[in-house]
Design brief:
The protein has 133 residues and is of the alpha+beta class. It contains two helices and five strands. It has one domain.
Length: 133
């Protein structure tokens, strides 16, 4: 059971790390400007799925990365070097507050899974100590 806990929690850590990576990518590209005739940066969203059946839960995995809208939002910046004839450029449709909330959730999930791994490891070490006495 201890090894199952370590394995399952480590899959959770992997998914949360990928989630943190995706959110970090989104935040770092929030001000990426494109010409109005090009696609805006598409936000990344991690899709997770279970491994195994509900009766035989073996953890979670990244099932894929979904991309957000490339439509973007048009902003009037006539002095920008990428502005079109009307003075517009395109920014991605990424909400900073939503991304920060997602980052906090992903970090807390990672921390919770790391705590499970540490507690399971500690229990395993204590069991070895008992066996040696």
């Amino acid at each position: 059971m201890t090894f199952d806990a370590i394995g399952i929690a480590s899959t959770g850590m992997t998914v949360h790390r990928k989630w943190i990576d995706a959110v970090s990518d989104n935040i770092s590209n929030i001000n990426t400007v494109r010409p109005s005739n090009e696609d805006a940066f598409a936000a990344r969203y991690v899709v997770a799925s279970t491994i195994g059946t509900p009766e035989d839960n073996q953890g979670v995995q990244v099932a894929g990365i979904e991309l957000g809208s490339t439509e973007g939002r048009m902003v009037y910046e006539p002095d920008h070097p990428l502005a079109d004839e009307q003075g517009y450029v395109k920014y991605p449709e990424i909400d900073m507050s939503s991304q920060m909330t997602q980052l906090i959730m992903a970090q807390r999930g990672y921390q919770a899974n790391a705590a499970v791994v540490e507690r399971a490891r500690s229990s395993y070490e204590q069991a070895i100590q008992i066996g040696q006495n």
